[in-house]
Amino acid sequence: MSETRWWRYVEQLIDGETAQEAARRAGFDKSAFTRWKKGAAADAAFVVKLARAYHANVVQALAEAELITDDEAALRLVPTGKAEILHSTPITELAEEIIRKAKELPRKESENSDNVHALIRPNQPSEIDRDIDDLDLPYVAHEPSEGIDEDDDESKYDV
């Protein structure tokens, strides 16, 4: 028994789903899959139901089942389903599209309007001594327009 064109198409179409899952989705008994796997020809009604269940091109499915010829179908294969499109798109194009979409996402405004954020040491006790002078703590950033006054401790601006 050699693998038929129809069975190869069915395996690609259901993409890892079990025969039971695919049959339930298409609305017929899973025994059809067993017959197809053994090389039996597909009935046109089953071909159409399966193609519709997976949003596949019905004419292409009929040709794959060899119920019509490729010439009769005048096939011009165009991916129609999301899975077909993703599988047929080169990974570099997918990556570029993800980057493009990420750049379109709205940016979250900083919650701290003064743009200065004190660093917290990893071993800092949970109880913080509120009497400590803020100038003794390191800072992440400061406003570029701010100058450093003579009275300022310049070490707070070191990164």
Tell me what you see in this structure.
The chain contains eight helices and no strands. It has 159 residues and is mostly helical. It folds into two domains: 5-84, 434 Repressor (Amino-terminal Domain); 110-159, no CATH class. Helix 2 packs across helix 4 (44-53) and helix 4 (44-53) packs across helix 5. The mean pLDDT is 79.
Give short descriptive properties of this protein:
42% helix; 159 residues; 434 Repressor (Amino-terminal Domain); 8 helices; 2 domains; mainly alpha
| Number of spatially distinct domains | 2
> What letter string, H or E per element, gives the SSE order?
HHHHHHHH
* Largest β-sheet summary: none
Mean pLDDT equals 79
CATH topology of the largest domain: 434 Repressor (Amino-terminal Domain)
The percentage helix is: 40-55%
Describe the global form: elongated
- Total E-strand runs: 0
The radius of gyration over CA amounts to 32 Å
Distance between the ends = 72 Å
- CATH class of the largest domain reads Mainly Alpha
Low-pLDDT segments, ≥5 res: none
Approximate strand percentage? under 5%
Structural class: mainly alpha
Q: Number of helical runs?
A: 8
How would you name the oligomeric state of the polypeptide chains in this document? single chain
- Proper CATH architecture of the largest domain: Orthogonal Bundle
